[in-house]
Amino acid sequence: MKLISLLWNNILHRKTLSLVTVLSVAITVALVVFLLLCSAGLEQGAEKGYGPFEVTIGAKGSASQLALNTYYHIGAPTGNVPLSLLDEVRKDPQVSSAFAMTTGDNLNGFPIVGMEPGYFPVRYGNDTQLAEGKLYGKLGEAVLGSYAASALGLHVGDKFQGAHGLVKGAADEDEGAGADGDHDEHEAHHSFTYTIVGILPPLHTSDDRAIYTTLDYAWAVHESQSGANKDVTAILVKPSSLLGAQSIKTKYGQISNVQAIYTSKAVADVVNVVDKGTQALSVVTGVCVVLAAGTILLSLIAAVQERKRDVGLLRLIGKSKGFIWMALVGEGLSLTLIGLILGLLIGHLGGYLGREAVFEFAGLQIQSWQLMPGEWMLAVFTLLIGGLAAAGPALQAYRVDPLQLFKS
């Protein structure tokens, strides 16, 4: 009897237990793969999420909140700083370039961001070409990120009105509060119309899910700021050097009600917090690994008990101990291998199906079909666990005398 035929027949003989074993391995592997994909997306997003803007200036508050709102369009801004500060920053010899940002409105949950058009060549290079149309140049013109345009179904030439707040439905809630000021603000947003003049190419950053327009849109919509009293949400600064970054942070961080942060440090702090959450999930994953190994072990113990006579008969007709050993260990490894392959497919499929939800929520790009470096270690570790779990029952059958095994 061929070894492969014996293995396959044994697996099919106990369909339910074999299926449970395969599923336990597959679910564990799929969970690990999905965590690896999210972790890689987080690292890539952190690396290129803020471009060359090593210093960010904004209102006093949480440095992480300022970085997340400015570059990832997550959460609320820490407040506003005077527009006049932008001119002061640009005159600083340590500053290579600086751009102010205004935000606070949305279109169906996608943030509307006021930014000077010069931001894009500084952030992404001078050779960045729009997928459609042109960059905005005057009040009321807007350019959509590739994901925002696709999700909203909007094209060049379309018009839209924004809503107050950074979350879809926020304006409706404000209006429901019954305040006259909120009602007037709601009406102001619906009376201001944007015209789409361009669509950005896929940039693989959070800018893909933003809507960009002129810096002065917020002042025109809210009609509450004029002249020297105009405010902006944040100032993005590209220093001329690393020493320049330190000088800028120190200088502008001393201004009352203003903070200047190292963008990379603020982003790293967020990544560290997420890593702690990932470590907690790793504990759950470890429990799943133990359960999967236990399932394989119980499955093969049951197989040995069921097939004692079969094993004894194989030994009596001349099959070696090595053949018996390979048959039992091979069954465990076969179930593990099937579960491993299925788990890898499920994990990547889950990443593919969930990529848009993850990107819309956190701005993280998941490369769903990209093979992660850790997957090779995962495959080796999974097969090793399966082999070790199968070795115990196989050793039990391996050591028993064939006559005693057959008589029992």
What does this structure look like?
Helices cover 58% and strands 14% of the residues. It is an alpha+beta fold. It has two domains: 3-45 and 271-407, no CATH class; 51-269, no CATH class. Helix 3 (63-71) crosses helix 11 (263-306) and helix 7 runs antiparallel to helix 8. The longest helix is centred in the last third of the chain and has 44 residues, at 263-306. The chain is elongated and about 100 Å long. The protein starts with a helix and ends with a helix. Residues 283-398 form the ABC3 transporter permease C-terminal domain. It is a multi-pass membrane protein. It is found in: Cell membrane.
Element pattern in H and E: HHEHEHEEHEEHEEHHEEHEEHEHHHHH
- The rough form would be described as elongated
Average pLDDT metric? 78
Structural class: alpha+beta
Q: Sheet bearing the most strands, described? A: 11 strands, mixed
How large is the count of helical segments?
15
Feature tags:
408 residues; alpha+beta; 11-stranded mixed β-sheet; transmembrane helix; ABC3_permease_C; MacB_PCD
Secondary structure elements and pairings:
Blueprint: H1 3-13, H2 15-48, E1 55-59, H3 63-71, E2 81-82, H4 84-91, E3 95-107, E4 110-115, H5 119-124, E5 132-133, E6 141-144, H6 146-152, E7 159-160, E8 163-164, H7 170-176, H8 180-191, E9 194-199, E10 211-213, H9 217-222, E11 231-232, E12 234-239, H10 242-252, E13 258-262, H11 263-306, H12 308-316, H13 321-362, H14 374-399, H15 402-407
Parallel strand pairs: 4-10, 6-9
Antiparallel strand pairs: 1-12, 1-13, 2-11, 3-4, 3-8, 3-12, 5-9, 6-10, 7-9
Helix pairs in contact: 1-13, 2-11, 2-13, 2-14, 3-11, 7-8, 11-12, 11-13, 11-14, 13-14
